[in-house]
Amino acid sequence: MFKFEDLFRKVGENFSVVWVLVAIINATVSILVYDARVVAAFLGSLLFWCVGIQCISSCVLHWYRPTADKIAESIGWAPGSPFQKEVAAAAGAFGILGILCSWISGDFWTATAIGASFMFFLMGIGHVLDIVRTKNISIYNAGSILYTDLLVPVVLIALLILWKMGY
């Protein structure tokens, strides 16, 4: 039988994939309805949803208890770590930049895409190192976040290059 709590749990465990799907839907609507350029639509949408909204969400969830403690445990960290506030601050900073990409483009998109890609990719490498060194396969360390932390930056940089080339 279908249970909403199971759906909410799955969405929570795969929040980064949800933002990717929302970005794809948003870009597709922009292309089909508003005749937006394909590369710009996908780049702008990923910057807003996967950098902006996802990072603001991460900031809030990593900062405030009791959610912060639950997330720490789901990553395999000890609850109450002051390091979590630093993760929240960095995520919040990039979240603001991602949201501002809706109003500011050009080199601002370039800087945001490069900075966020660097942060996400290194977070992904951190997850891989944690898995290898400590066998930490907690859901927020070895789940879908691992894949989006590594793949979203690659897609962002590829789209950024194409966008800079005029596509």
Report what the structure shows.
The model has no long low-confidence stretch (mean pLDDT 95). It is built from 8 helices and no strands. With 167 residues, the chain is an all-alpha fold. The N and C termini lie far apart (47 Å).
List keywords for this structure.
8 helices; 0% strand; 81% helix; 167 residues; mainly alpha; globular
Task: Kindly summarize this structure in a few lines.
It is built from 8 helices and no strands.
Q: What would you report as the Rg, rounded to the nearest angstrom?
A: 16 Å
Write the H/E string, N to C: HHHHHHHH
Q: What is the general shape?
A: globular
Q: What share of residues is helical?
A: over 70%
Average pLDDT over all residues: 95
Q: Supply the number of helical segments.
A: 8
How much strand?
A: under 5%
How many domains in all? 1
Biggest sheet details: none
How far apart the termini lie comes to 47 Å
Which class do the helix and strand fractions yield?
A: mainly alpha
Counted beta strands: 0
Runs in which pLDDT lies below 50 for 5 or more consecutive residues are: none
How do the helices and strands line up, and which of them pair or pack?
Layout: H1 4-13, H2 15-34, H3 38-63, H4 67-75, H5 83-100, H6 107-134, H7 139-142, H8 144-164
